[in-house]
Amino acid sequence: MIKKTLAQIEQMANGEKLDPQHQNVVIEGVSIDTRTISPGNLYIPIIGDTFNGHQFVNAAIENGAAAVLWESDQPNPPQQIPVIYVNDTLEALQTLAKSYRDELSIKVVGITGSNGKTTTKDMVTAVLSTTTSVQKTEGNLNNHIGLPLTILRLKEDTKVAVLEMGMSAFGEIELLTKVAGPDVAVITNIGESHMMDLGSREGIAKAKLEIVDGLSNEGLLIYHGDEPLLTKRVQSMNIQTITFGASKQNDLYPLNIIQKNEGTYFSINEQEKKKFYLPVLGKHNVNNAMAAIAVARHFGLSWDQIESGLKQIKITNMRLELIEGINGIKLINDAYNASPLSMKAAISLVHDLETPGKKIVVLGDMLELGDKENEYHEEVGRFIQPDKVDYVFTYGALGEYIASGAMEHFPQERVDSYQDKQQLIEALRKLLSDGDILLVKGSRGMKLEEVIFAFKK
Fold first, then answer.
1. Which of 3, 225, 363, 396 is most buried as measured by Cβ atoms within 10 A of its Cβ?
2. Whole-angstrom distance, CA of residue 140 vs CA of residue 163
């Protein structure tokens, strides 16, 4: 993590008015949260819509903060701790992170996309870790605050940083990529997430491609080549590219994909005789794996090293996470988030899985889809195949449209819709038995992991 004198911090964050007697004070690490601050940290009080971190400076001092950044127009700066004054603490956090990143002898992989960002981040990290020291974005620290904090946590001897970049509006990826300065940029795909804010899939593609704005001069863009909205725009850019996808027009494409209950096996055009194994469910994750393979080959890894790395993947929780349930039930927890693209991918997984029991899906509302949200939900319902899924349960107001779409070709007694989560759980409790598979998926705001917890072993 960052370890600097306050004189250096003042310069790196574009601060001022540090008392000369404190110039040689050393801070180690940065925190914006007094509850998690460590002794020696620099406390950066962020101002949000409903909070002002400056109000908690005394708690930061009590918990061991060694110094603080302070917005010049905020009253009552602390007297008992070194203070560096800045115009805007959030901008100072971002400026400090960029300055630190520029000092480090490190390669940065930036990853964005409508779906699969976190899984691809985990895959890239697993593969590169077979040969070098890697740090990655932890949890959901992928926005204008989280990404700078992640950079400031990088160790000086780390060789590669794998940084996830999330967004909901134009300009957000541009800001993140200019802070991170990636050497390799990855765009996993273009879906319908954030349609409410960006208006169209064309707008989403434009926003995701902002990632190239911070790409180094010799940088590489790796992207989903089956997406014409990306291909069309990239063709006008003078940058090095590698594409991946299902079609043979891509640089990397799969030759064979086999879905088993324990994971996914596949081979690719670049290494026809080698069978790769992912301890991850879902054929769509082969696309994410090919993106990781492209990153690894760019950094000079051998095929054997890549094969070994893919076997060691540990995916962040609630992304097609296979869990042992009570009474011999298999649970698939994919409750972290949802979009039409990821819903269909999860449903396709259930279609492919083999089980002696029933296959049941619980699908919740997909949020932030804009004017066509009802249509998108009905389309997901129609996508479910009645000969490969036994029962469809939905949760939430928009979930009723999934149920409506499913009932176009499901018998009515095999589809049910709920607004009360406890009633949904009780209905499942009466239905589930040994050998059954239960998929649970919905947007984060639906908190459908509570259904998983009800049946977890």
1. 363
2. 11
Model confidence pLDDT, tens digit, residues 253-289 = 999 999 998 899 999 999 999 999 999 898 999 999 9
Q: pLDDT tens across 22-81, in order?
A: 999 999 999 999 999 999 999 999 999 899 999 999 999 999 999 999 999 999 999 999
In this predicted structure, what is the pLDDT of residue 345? Answer: 92
Q: What's the pLDDT score for residue 261?
A: 86
d(CA 391, CA 228): 35
CATH fold group of domain 3-89: 3.40.1390
104-311 architecture in CATH? 3-Layer(aba) Sandwich (3.40)
Residue 195 CA to its chain's centroid (Å): 18
Rounded Cα distance, 398 and 393, in Å = 12
The ranges assigned to domains in the chain are: 3-89, 104-311, 321-455
What is the b/e burial string over 360-388, where b = at least 16 CB atoms within 10 angstroms of the residue's CB? bbbbbbbbbbeeebeebbbbbbebbeeee
Fold assignment, 321-455: Protein-Tyrosine Phosphatase; Chain A (3.90.190)
Q: What is the mean pLDDT of the chain?
A: 94
Cα–Cα distances in angstroms (integers) from residue 345 to residues 28, 131, 231, in the given order: 43, 32, 22
Beta carbons within 8 Å of 191's beta carbon, 6+ residues apart = 114, 115, 201, 204, 339, 340, 341, 342
Distance CA 384, CA 348 (A): 8
On the question of pLDDT at 200 being above 90, the answer is no
Q: What are phi and psi of 196, to 5 degrees?
A: -60, -40
